[in-house]
Amino acid sequence: MKKYREYVEKWERKIGSFLQFDPEKTKGDSNPDGVLKGIPFGVKDNIALKGFDMTCGSKILENFNCPYTATAVEQLQKAGAVAVGKMNMDEFGMGSSTDNSALAETNNPWDTSRVAGGSSGGSAAAVAAGLVPFALGSDTGGSVRQPASFCGVYGLKPTYGTVSRYGLTAYASSLETIGICGESTAITRNVFNIMRGVDVMDNTTVDYKPSGKDDTQTIAVLKIGDGDLSEEVLNSYKVSIGRIKDLGYIVSEVELPTLKFVVPAYYVIATAEASANLARFNGIRYGLAEKSAETPSDLMQMSRNAGFGDEVKLRILLGTYVLRSGFQDQYYHRAQKIRTAILGDFNRIFEEADALMLPVFPTAAFHHGSSDLTQLQQKAADLYTCSANLAGLPALAVPSTIENGLPVGVQFTAPAFEEERLFRISEKLEEIFPAQKPEGFSKEWKA
Amino acid sequence: MDKGELIKTATLAKLKLDEKEVEKLALEVSAMLENFSLMMEADIDGLEPTTQTLQQENRTRSDSPGSSNLSNDLLERVPEREDRFIVIPNVI
Amino acid sequence: MKYQSFVGLEIHIQLISETKVFCSCPNNFGDEPNTNVCPVCMGYPGALPSLNEEAVFKALKVCKALNCHINEKAVFDRKNYFYPDMPKNYQITQFESPFGVDGYFNLELDDGSYKKIRIHDVHLEEDAGKMIHDGYQSRLDYNRAGTPLLEIVTEPDLVAGRDAELFVQQFRQMVRYLEVTDGNMEEGSLRCDANTSINLPGKGLGTKTEVKNLNSSRFVNKALTYEIKRHAKVIDKGGEIVQETRLWDEKTSTSKSMRTKEDSHDYRYFPEPDLPPYRVTAELMKEVLSSMLELPNDRKKRYLEDFKLSPEQAAFITGERKTADWFDSLLKLGADSNQAASWLSGDIQKVLNKEDVSLEESPFKVERIKELFDLINAKKISNNIGKNLLQAMFKEDKDPSVLVKEKGLEQVSDTGAVEKVVDEVLAAHSAVVDAVRAGEEKQVGFLMGQLMKATGGKVNPQMAREIILKKIKLDISGDSQSRDPKIVDKGSEK
After folding, report:
1. What is the ipTM of this complex?
2. What is the pLDDT of residues C44-92, one digit of tens each?
3. Distance, in angstroms, between A334 CA and closest chain C CA?
4. Residue numbers in C near A325 (CB within 8 A)
5. How many CB pairs under 8 A join A and B?
6. pLDDT of A295-318, one tens digit each?
7. For chain C, which domains are there?
């Protein structure tokens, strides 16, 4: 335990992935036996874990001690895993860097001048540094897969409805899932199978119904246009295409015609749902409350003003706007129809292929600050990941190569409930091209 | 996005923005709305909106009380209270 | 009035269930504040709604009772607005596709005719918490937040305060019958808001105003009567009605405009992503139908037609479902409907009122009352004794036959024995006997009373009176004057 703590502390001074870390605090809530016995894991700070605070990376919930535990976390505790801390994140899941956290900054373990990705940056960074073998994140538009790609670890976004959202602070209810950053395909698969299940507390959970066809023969590969990807990412992508060909998969090039509309559709839906989901934070029942307020209206407004960061305010305003009477049709309803269209595109592809390969993000990890990529550009770059959220499909980010000292991942997606197809592709790749680790990495937690 | 519209929207969202914020946000919201207008080019004729993927209908729970009561824990986390009541400044 | 008036009602009823509509907290009234709360109904981050199947069942019962078309898919929506008593600052309700639409209710008017009132929709939603204002602060209790609420919206088919009042009364009776709600307006388990407008005849609806804070059906009448008059005054003067929400102020008997600083709400309704649609199956509807019974107005009709009860008796008996059920059970045992109706609405009710106990909680089981009737009808006891027995049955919780034996109340039917006592009474009151002979028939009553006293009431009154008169007349042999045709047996007491 002592050596583990020291290891974590040493890394944390460089990367700051945990908002709270205490390996003993919830040990008593974990089954002393079980398949995951003794395995430590991190929990993104928007997921409920009794005993720890749940800040969602926001001032409005700073010091909010959570009185209950998310179902998915309980499943893992029942299997013996021990939750050791809460991971830093972009405020309320809104961002692609974790720099939107109001409480701390997280650095990429490969290059601390760069971001770990977002919004589950803390989770990915901790796994990359070997602080934990896996950590839970949430994926609304790519928030598990993109940081996984930036940090060189595996990142799973499960099929919508397979993992209970009870205990996940809602950002975009119809798009998001609890996801996993893992150091290997094996642990990602194990954790997924333990966590998933129908939950009476979450009426959107569904029965798990895979087709049974777990082995993939044909992988469709998304055609990339000139300038769509940075040089590094393009190189990495080409290498991965070569690898799957070498592994014997039948590869075909495909296009997703709806892809150019997914970012606006995603942001319209996500911000609309977020504007309602975040309305509960008003300083009355919990969280930050502005004491000087003299009317209830002031109490609510002032608490929200003081508690929310700029990006959150922006998205709440956008979401409120697109739902306003008179505007719903051209924004919200239109976006929901584009959702139907993208699902149609995917279904067409999956008639011919068992899985689809596509990039995760157009660049590798960028520097802190907006000089590399403005907030707006970061949003536009969500196109490869948010499409799976719009369609509810499973997707896995797999470490591909290291380009100029930075990891670049590649993404696979499959029809609903076909996670096993993704794991098998990933396993095969992992066998021959295992994921690399940053300097200073060691599996201290195993001791 | 004109400032009046922005302020109206902010009021609906219970956000009271100061002058500087209004200036900044008006620009940012306008940029996003421009991005949203890209959707107008999409061919969505005859498509039904998807509000949820992969739903299982008729999900219900039986009408039986839970066994645990967290009410005291929840009251501990209330910012301002008097006995078991939550307290806020008066509506008038 | 030269205008045509239109009234529509929005009625909310809190449904009876063990738990709240979207979480497993107890659905109780009157518990310690903030005791029946959990992360879900307190709007905690990460909490999600989970639909209570009993709330769905009860919603469908009401839809069926109101002859609604049941939508194939019932969908939940979010209604977004900020208010301190709202745990999430949006309410989960139904907007686009509620459980029931396009129904109707047959309203019985004062003159006995019926009017069809169309029901726009019936939808399921959650209640908010309670806020109590107290000087410089307000206090919030979220026990009520998440209580299942059913909202019934009528079309503006009502015309005035009185028929709105009748609607509320009859609707309330119906939903109590269905046992879906307590329908208690004082406690808030039935709440009513009214919308009204006026216009020149044939011009359609006018600009409407909404009136809230109507805590009884009587206030519904008062408030609407006032409001319609107010509309007329405004329009007569050439003014325009402002579409607004007003509060009824019982103290001043006027409606007052609510000074809301906010614009008309933009609720930004959108489908609730956390709840999938509910598709009502034929199987479920079968269950719903089999759980439903004859509704009060139909039952009342049956009692009037089949049993020829008086309107007052029929109204009284069908007033509460448990009373009508009791009545039906009594008839099933073979009791005569008129005797049962008269006793139920008369002496039985008297005892219950005196003891402040409901029929179903009282010792008046239908078997016992039937036994009482049998004793009376077989002339084993008199009607009067029967009535007195009720009190004893209540206090001692015993069968009437047991009490009759214990107290020796059986009527004496042996005429010989009666004649003997009559002789004694007549002998003791010869002056009265003379008075009777002289034409003062009222004095027979006195003699009856004396006879009853002497026998402890255990004489069949009809028989007693016959014997008294016979004996008095017999003593006047041949005296035609005393054969006053006015001295006629007026028939036995009932």
Report:
1. 0.96
2. 999 999 999 999 999 999 999 999 999 999 999 999 999 999 999 999 9
3. 13
4. 266, 268
5. 171
6. 999 999 999 999 999 999 999 999
7. 4-286 (no CATH), 293-407 (no CATH), 415-474 (1.10.10.410)
CA gap C433, C472 in Å, rounded:
7
B73 inside 8 A of chain A by CB: yes
**Number of neighbouring beta carbons within 10 Å of residue C241:** 18
Asked if residues C370 and C330 have their Cβ atoms less than 8 Å apart, the reply is yes
Domain boundaries, chain B: 3-41
Q: Is C148 helix (H, G, I), strand (E, B) or coil?
A: strand
**A184 residue type, one letter:** S
Q: Which residue of A160, A282, A301 is the best one to mutate when testing the C interface, meaning the one whose CB has the most C CBs within 10 A?
A: A282
Q: CATH homologous superfamily of domain A1-447?
A: Amidase signature (AS) domain (3.90.1300.10)
User: Between C38, C50, C268, which is nearest B61 by CB?
Assistant: C50
Q: Which pLDDT belongs to residue C474?
A: 62
Encode A213-263 in three state secondary structure.
CCCCCEEEEECCCCCCCCHHHHHHHHHHHHHHHHCCCEEEEECCCCHHHHH
Mean pLDDT of chain A: 96
Catalytic residues of A: 44, 119, 143
Give the separation between CA C470 and CA C464, rounded to whole angstroms: 10
Nearest neighbour of A203 by CB, restricted to C46, C51, C142: C51
Nearest CA distance, A238 vs chain C (angstrom):
39
pTM of the model: 0.85
Placement of tokens 């305003």 in the chain: A317
Confidence (pLDDT) at C407:
81
- Partners of B61 on chain A (C-beta within 8 Å) are 200
Give the mean pLDDT of chain C.
Answer: 89
Secondary structure string (H, E, C) spanning chain A: CHHHHHHHHHHHHHHCCEEEECCCCCHHHCCCCCCCCCCEEEEECCECCCCCECCCCCHHHCCCECCCCCHHHHHHHHCCCEEEEEECCCHHHCCCCCCCCCCCCCCECCECCECCCCCCHHHHHHHHCCCCCEEEEEECCCCCHHHHHHHCCEEEECCCCCCCCCCECCCCCCCCEEEEEECCHHHHHHHHHHHCCCECCECCCCCCCCCCCCCCCEEEEECCCCCCCCHHHHHHHHHHHHHHHHCCCEEEEECCCCHHHHHHHHHHHHHHHHHHHHHHCCCCCCCCCCCCCCCHHHHHHHHHHHHCCHHHHHHHHHHHHHHCCCCCHHHHHHHHHHHHHHHHHHHHHHHHCCEEEEECCCCCCCECCCCCCCHHHHHHCCHHHHHHHHHCCCEEEEEEEEECCEEEEEEEECCCCCHHHHHHHHHHHHHHCCCCCCCCCCCHHHC
